[in-house]
Design a protein that fits this description.
The structure is a single chain. With 98 residues, the protein is an alpha+beta fold. The protein has a single domain, classed as RelE-like (YaeB-like fold). Helix content is 46%, strand content 30%. Strand 3 and strand 4 form a beta hairpin. The chain starts with a strand and ends with a helix.
Length: 98
Amino acid sequence: MTLKILPSAFDDLARGRIFYEKQGGAALGEYFFNSLFSDIDSLALFAGIHKMIDCTFYRLLYKRFPYAIYYTLTGETVEIWRVLDCRQQPSTIDAAFE
């Protein structure tokens, strides 16, 4: 499978990294970023096994931080659309896809 990370997901990753750098320093921000990319890389093997949301997006819940990776499958391509903080209001998460 080919992984394609859309600009919206890169923006989400950058915001998350900045948040965790403010909380615990550069090392925590780096750990967040690297470990999240590890889960994204796992989608090359395990894409499509996660819960489907609104018959559109699959959602991979991240284990180490309260984040969710939203992606779609198109043939042999996994498109990562958003990487969202699960601590926000559900309406905010819904608005991220509009």
